[in-house]
Amino acid sequence: MLKKLFIHEWTETCKLPALGLFSFAILTGIAALYYHFFPALTPEVEIHVGNLLLFIAYSFLAAALSLLILIYLGIRFYKNMYTDEGYLMHTLPVPAWMHLVSKMCNGMLWTYITGIVTTVTVLPVTALALPKIGYLSPGEFAELKEAFSMLFGDNLWELLFYFIPYTLVSGLFAVLQLYAAVCLGQLFGKHKVFSSVICYLGLHALVSAVSSIFMVPALTGIIITKVPDSAVSAPTLVYPLLMDAVFLCGFFASLVLSVACFVLCHYLLKRNLNLD
Questions:
Q1: Rg of the chain's alpha carbons, rounded to an integer?
Q2: Residue 181: how many other CB atoms lie within 10 Å
């Protein structure tokens, strides 16, 4: 039954996100062609304002697309669980956790697809756009590479080892946090949609504040315990360790918070259901 719920959820939600991603892919192709054929800048041009504004607009659209797809998933969850559709969905002979898991898996999948598509499309456009926004000499390219190595280290496989699990769990938490906000909003007697938005903003602010409180001591402990005194002033040694700590702390924090949001959603759907 869980498989049928997931297939139903996927077929009901796939059209708009797919259309949005396809449209963004076309826009990416246009942007890539524009930057590819734009004349190379000369050393006398420090920055091309028009190209910079176009790249900012393109980056904003990439971020907006991810946000809009997440909002769409939240609206879908609300309509399917708490409006007229909810009266039908909750009469199905399946427990509340199956409803939640099917929507969670669908939301996670679309979050990952969106992340992969935007990453694969934005990176080439960024590589093409940077030399056309401002003149970059070969020495400046070397400085960019050195800055990247300083921040993330030279081992790409180690970076992926941390980044991929962190991204997967972060996507899970983003979806469950949204669903938890929708469930909390239904506890209010009036203005449930507005209450859900306020609950989401409140949860986001609370998570950010708590994460900051725990992150600072963790990073400080990394520096004190793992970085030799003679290397504190060497960024190439300190920054990779700090990035590892950020990924690890973020992974476990997102995992714990995802479990908490799932338990909260399940409890409210099972014990405190309040349909419109």
A1: 23
A2: 25
Residues 6 or more apart whose CB falls under 8 angstroms from that of 109 comprise 10
Give the Cα separation of 10 and 55 in Å (integer): 33
Looking at residue 275, the DSSP 8-state letter turns out to be: -
Cα 121 from Cα 124, distance rounded (Å): 6
258 neighbors 88 (Cβ within 8 angstroms): no
Alpha carbon distance 113, 75 (integer Å): 19
Q: 43-60 burial, b if ≥16 CB within 10 A, otherwise e?
A: eeeeebeebeebbeebee
Q: Lowest mean pLDDT of 20-29, 125-134, 221-230, 246-255, name the range.
A: 221-230
Dist CA 263 CA 248 (whole Å) = 23
Query: Smallest Cα–Cα separation from 265: which of 65, 104, 62?
Result: 104
Chain centroid to Cα 114, Å, comes to: 9
**Model confidence over 186-233: pLDDT tens digits?**
888 778 888 888 998 888 888 877 777 766 666 665 555 555 544 444
Whole-structure pTM value: 0.81
Q: Six-digit token pair at 238?
A: 């300190």
Angle between helices 235-271 and 96-133 (to 10 degrees): 150
Mean pLDDT in residue range 18-22: 93
Q: Which two tokens stand for residue 182?
A: 């929708």
